[in-house]
Design brief:
Blueprint lengths: L1 H21 L19 H5 L2 E2 L7 E2 L6 E6 H6 L5 H4 L6 E3 L11 E3 L11 E5 L2 E2 L20 E8 L3 H4 L6 E7 L5 E7 L3 E12 L2 E12 L3 E5 L7 E5 L2 E12 L2 E13 L2 E2 L2 E2 L5 E16 L3 E21 L8 E2 L6 E5 L4 E15 L2 E14 L2 E7 L1 H5 L5 E14 L2 E16 L3 E12 L3 E12 L5 E12 L3 H5 L6 E2 L7 E13 L3 E20 L5 E23 L2 E12 L10 E11 L2 E10 L2 E5 L2 E8 L2 E11 L4 E8 L7 E2 L10 E2 L4 E9 L1
Parallel strand pairs: 6-9, 21-26, 31-34
Antiparallel strand pairs: 1-2, 3-8, 4-5, 6-7, 8-9, 10-11, 10-44, 11-12, 12-15, 13-14, 15-16, 16-19, 17-18, 19-20, 20-22, 20-23, 22-25, 23-24, 24-27, 25-26, 27-28, 28-29, 29-30, 30-32, 32-33, 33-34, 34-35, 35-36, 36-37, 37-40, 38-39, 40-41, 41-44, 42-43
Length: about 675
């Protein structure tokens, strides 16, 4: 099915690219396309402006946050394709396959994660919140976000609720997409990989339109996974997947309209911890539309925006293998017992008003308000046997012959959130930069929350910067955590309250002509934490309770060894973390080296995750070790001429045998990751 759908999409996209390339009226040469990373000096890279920490432009060095920035030219040089790969090169962040789906690899910041959807981290794309209204996370509804359309990405570690409200608890990933691009790329590679992406920018009736379309598919790697259910002790499976991403921005003067759409599909492999070839299917979709109107005066600007997000997830998995229902079904059937969820549409709309006032050269004020409404309809279960009769042991149970609506798995619900924020930034004697702010959010049904922040940034010399950061942040329980019902694995808890984190952090940045070194220590104290607990043999439910703090340190190096050689490295050490974070590594490190020689660019990278643990014998209180691993990447590219670039990239260069901790406590082995993945690509600029 995936291959049939993608084959038709590839034909349409190929035709569209051909038409665009033939249209000389729209074609234009990009300015400095695919410019070398090394064309920017280290000082320029360190003084790049970021917007996520304050909602206005601020240099990396003075930003009142722990933040790491990757630019388009830096990302384009690396042998990476998706966000879940890149996060492993940012201090404090990690991403691991967890067996929830062939395409799930949730990311975490500073080794703290409760839900599989990474709902403790807020994902922003061009300023718009991207998350599943049902689970309040992004990593499961938009898995494997493409890197090809990123102009700049900011990995903010620590709280951001003083500006953004719920979910900006452990971090914010702020993505700014590309504009003014005219190019097409084609990739082929391992696992029958095929990919096309297409950028086009043009002026139509004084409207600037930027379009990006990305389509990828592959047939998956092959695995032999230990299984007691097979005669030879293993089961063969594969993990085919596909994705489609669309981003369109239209702007005229100070008015902008933005459309985003993401679709991801996968088959076979693990789904919710179970393998079933030909049965397991997963499809997630998210669409987002936003209207933005900006008003500018000499020393201030205001923005009014309205956005709408809708998402859906379709899942079908095997509950019992073929033949299990033969003697207890009517009519008698050997068909496997399959269950899943319908692709119900969950929606959210948001109205925002934001303001930035430059009072004078030393003082700035940001303030604003927002209103969000979440509509979460009943989550409908589908099965091919009568699941109610089966649970009640009312045999024989009816065999439907196809997926048929069953009982609801989640109650319908709505939520309204009203938020206001205020932030003041001031500079004292050109050396001390103070940020003081707070946000208040009022939730229907679950109370309210005040999130303050204080940041002191001191620059005694051009080479040294010291930061002290204090903030409180929170995460409101998701609709799923509150309202799941009649579920043998997870039950909702309607009495949940928001969980809160209080963070203190000290950072030192040393910068000279050839290198920059950033070091920091941090502490996260949790109160009212939302924690999964076992309430039955295999059933989990969330409760508010005390939780151990996270304490650790981070070190990041940027080195321009020669005009042609750039090095980036970091390491993270967590010495205290909650007991429930046993699946997350406490030691992390990464390295990236880029070398430019005439028309050639070579990049090698690697990241290392220390040992983790997984549940043993179906019991979260019993643990077994999951080995540490190192994964290497590489990319070599050559500019053939001013329009054509060719490259070869590899992920998991040494074909390392990597397993990561599963989300499910019922599995007896780690989740296998893909082997070496090589891709040959061509990029044509027009």
């Amino acid at each position: 099915m995936i291959r049939q759908i993608l084959a038709s999409r590839f034909k349409v996209l190929t035709l569209a690219i051909g038409i665009a390339l033939a249209n000389e009226g729209y074609a234009k040469q990009e300015e400095a396309h695919d410019s070398s990373l090394l064309s920017m000096s280290l000082a320029q890279l360190l003084d790049i402006e970021v917007t996520g920490p304050t909602r206005d432009e601020q240099t990396f060095r003075l930003a009142p946050a722990a933040v790491s920035v990757f630019t388009h030219t830096e990302i384009a040089a690396m042998g990476l394709s998706t966000l879940d790969q890149l996060v492993n090169f940012a201090p404090g962040y990690q991403s691991n396959r967890n067996g929830g789906s062939p395409i799930y690899a949730p990311y975490t910041s500073r080794a703290r994660r409760i839900s599989g959807s990474s709902s403790e981290i807020l994902l922003l794309v061009d300023g718009q919140r991207i998350n599943d209204p049902r689970t309040s996370g992004a990593s499961t509804i938009v898995p494997q976000f493409p890197l090809a359309n990123i102009e700049r990405i900011e990995f903010i570690r620590g709280p951001g609720s003083a500006l953004y409200g719920s979910n900006a608890m452990q971090g914010v990933i702020n993505i700014v997409t590309l504009s003014n691009q005219n190019r097409a790329s084609l990739e082929v590679g391992s696992f029958d990989h095929k990919a096309l992406n297409f950028f086009n920018s043009q002026q139509v009736a004084n409207i600037q339109i930027d379009s990006f379309l990305d389509i990828q598919q592959d047939g998956g790697d092959n695995y032999n996974i230990p299984s007691s259910a097979s005669l030879d002790g293993t089961v063969a499976t594969q993990d085919p997947k596909s994705r489609l991403s669309l981003n369109i921005k239209a702007q005229k003067n100070n008015t902008q309209l933005k459309l985003q759409h993401y679709t991801a599909e996968a088959e076979d492999f693990y789904l919710n911890g179970g393998i079933a070839n030909g049965v397991n299917k997963h499809k997630s979709e998210l669409s987002a539309l936003e209207f933005v109107q900006t008003f500018r005066l000499d020393n201030s600007s205001s923005m009014i925006s309205a956005n709408y997000t809708r998402s859906s997830t379709l899942r079908i998995q095997q509950l019992l293998p073929a033949g299990s229902m033969r003697d207890i079904s009517t009519p008698s059937s050997d068909a496997p017992f399959t269950g899943g969820t319908k692709d119900n549409v969950y929606s959210e709309y948001e109205l925002q008003w934001t303001n930035n006032w430059q009072i004078n050269s030393a003082n700035k004020l940001q303030f604003g308000a927002s209103y969000r409404h979440i509509d979460s309809p009943e989550l409908q279960v589908t099965t091919n046997y009568d699941i109610k009769a089966f649970i009640a042991r009312d045999f024989p149970v009816t065999y439907y012959g196809k997926q048929t609506d069953g009982p609801p798995a989640q109650h319908a619900s709505t939520r309204d959130i009203l938020g206001v924020y205020l932030q003041h930034q001031t500079t004292v004697a050109d050396k001390l930069h103070i940020t003081l702010g707070a946000r208040h959010d009022e939730f229907s049904n679950i109370g309210n929350r005040l999130s303050p922040r204080l940041a002191l940034v001191y620059t005694p010399t051009d080479a040294n910067t010291f930061k002290y950061l204090y903030a409180e942040a929170y995460r409101a329980p998701s609709e799923a955590e509150l309202n799941l019902t009649d579920n043998p694995q997870f039950l909702g808890n309607p009495n949940l309250q928001p969980e809160v984190v209080t963070t203190s952090e000290i950072i030192w940045i040393f910068q000279c002509e050839k290198y920059s070194l950033t070091s920091g220590i941090f502490e996260h104290q949790f109160s009212n934490a939302i924690v999964q607990q076992s309430i039955g043999e295999r059933t989990q439910q969330n409760f508010n309770m005390d939780q151990s703090p996270v304490r650790g340190a981070e070190l990041e190096l940027a080195l321009q060894a020669t005009p042609n050689l750039f090095v980036r490295a970091n390491t993270t050490a967590i010495w205290d973390k909650p007991e429930t974070s046993y699946r997350e590594a406490s030691r992390l490190a990464s390295l990236m080296v880029s070398y430019q020689y005439q028309q050639w660019n070579a990049n090698v990278g690697a990241y290392w995750h220390g040992e983790t643990e997984m549940a043993a014998n179906g019991d979260d209180s019993q643990r077994t070790q999951v080995d540490a691993f190192t994964l290497a990447t590489a990319k070599v590219s050559r500019a053939i001429n001013s329009q054509l670039n060719v490259y070869l990239k590899a992920y998991n260069v040494f074909d390392s045998d990597i397993a990561t901790a599963p989300e499910s406590s019922s599995l007896q082995q780690g989740i296998p990751n893909r082997g070496r993945n090589m891709q040959l690509g061509f990029t044509y600029h027009f």
